[in-house]
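Long-time lurker. I teach an intro course on protein structure, and each term I like to show students one example going from raw sequence to a predicted 3D structure in token notation. This year I'd like something fresh instead of my usual example. Would anyone be willing to generate the tokens for the chain below so I can use it in lecture? Attribution to the forum is fine with me.
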Amino acid sequence: MKHDLVKLNESDGSWDVFCAQWRDSCTLYDEDFETYARDAMPVLIDLVRQPKEGAGVYALRSEQGSFDAACQANSTYLPGYTGKVLRVRHLLMSPHFDFGDYPIEDYSRVLARMFSRTIELAKSDLPSEHIKFHLRSPADRQFFEAMTEALQAGGMSNVALKGAWLYLTL
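-- Reply from a regular --
Happy to contribute to a lecture. Here you go:
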């Protein structure tokens, strides 16, 4: 299954489609979309409603059109770095992953694709020399610890895990 990372916005209707899908997913599990991910969703909503240059809400969309994950991404200059840094925060997995019973391989596949599309984003729409990818859980940290050697072998430099962040230089 292929995934694309798409920028969500109100003007093209992609934000509405995303919300409708995730609202329907919550309903399937007798959950309330309005209170789903109550810490991260307000950040995403604000950024969609009041867009900022160098930032956006991005979602991982499957070939079938389902949104499997979403995040806030911004590219900016930060102290201690030469060049821009792409920060990925408020990563949310689809309500299906939060409430459903799926094999861990499905979660891992979506997480890996979200990360690989983040690298593509740093090379295209939000040009950045560095990436800081915020991890959702200790399990995500274990997942990326296993990938660190492969990332370095693939030409990424300064790959490091610090706290709940994965750092790398392209």
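Some talking points for your students: The chain is about 40% helix and 30% strand. Strands lie at 3-8, 55-62, 67-77, 84-93, 130-134, 157-162, 165-169.
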